Amino acid sequence: MLLQLHKLERYKDEHGNEIVYDGEPLENKIDIRFKGSNNTLVISPNADIKDLLVTFTGDNGRIEIGQTTKKRAGLRFELRCGHESRIWIGENVGCAGRTFISAVEGVSVSIGADVMFAKNIEVRGDDTHPIFDVRTEKRVNPSQSIVVGEHVWIAKHAVVMGGVTIGNGSVIGFRSIVTSSVPNNCIAVGAPARVVRRDIAWERPEVVPRRPNEQYPRKGEKSPQYWNLTDESEVPKSPVVRPLPTKTPRRLARRILRRLKG
Asked: Can you give the pLDDT of all 262 residues of the chain as single tens digits?
């Protein structure tokens, strides 16, 4: 079963799928797909939606998108939400290009307020396909939740993987792959990403039109609530992994049974 909508407006169907949105109806670059039941998409009437592809791949998923009250690049997302999973996007987030976010198998992805996404970015709590240890037949890549804090800048072509927390005010560099947590007010670069500088702050105004040696920041450009020293103790030493079902895999169970009989 696939229900596909190309208009953003209030909606509810007999399968319990619902769109909660009281803003002006939008039809440009809107693609909302329900493949299950009891899924909910909540969008602030003040959200600056520019490009939105949403796919609910299971049941009981929930996506929430906050308001846009400041000048931003607009919201451009491809969102994939699975069984009993959640995606939450805070207020005043901006995307220069479409950002892909995936939460399946009951995990959550949380994007804090004032996050700035560049182009071609992925934030994924899953690898799409399972990977197994051939000796034990146990899965080795469980889906994991992600938390991106407030006022985080994620540069072009970066990927944030499951089990990661990124602290407030940090910067993730060009083409970085974030596989472990990053403290607040840091710059992390590379694949896998590593912290290369601490105790930093960044601001949104571009340097492109500025004159050489111009003083920064200009009056009114500073966001003092995000000018903080790095605190390593605030980041979990290891991510919380959602436990997989403890049921013995069928093939392994059959092997054990054959050995017992033999």
From this structure: 789 999 999 999 999 999 999 999 999 999 999 999 999 999 999 999 999 999 999 999 999 999 999 999 999 999 999 999 999 999 999 999 999 999 999 999 999 999 999 999 999 999 999 999 999 999 999 999 999 999 999 999 999 999 999 999 999 999 999 999 999 999 999 999 999 999 999 999 899 998 998 888 888 899 999 999 999 886 755 444 444 444 444 454 454 345 434 4
Single-letter amino acid, residue 126? D
Kindly report whether the peptide bond that precedes residue 217 is cis, defined as omega within 30 degrees of 0: yes
Locate 168 and state its tokens. Answer: 């407030």
Please answer whether residues 9 and 17 qualify as being in contact, where contact means their C-beta atoms are separated by less than 8 angstroms. no
Helix (H) / strand (E) containing 62: strand 62-65
Structure tokens of 53?
């592809």
| Closest residue by Cα to residue 187 from 178, 179, 196, 176 | 196
pTM to 2 decimal places: 0.88
- Please list, residue by residue across 113-137, b when 16 or more beta carbons sit within 10 angstroms of its beta carbon and e when fewer do: bbbbbbeebbbbbbeeeeeeeeeee
Integer Cα distance of 154 and 182 in angstroms = 12
DSSP 82: -
Tokens of 52: 């939105």
Beta-carbon count within 10 A of 147 CB: 20
Residues 6 or more apart in contact with residue 229 via CB below 8 angstroms:
185, 198, 199
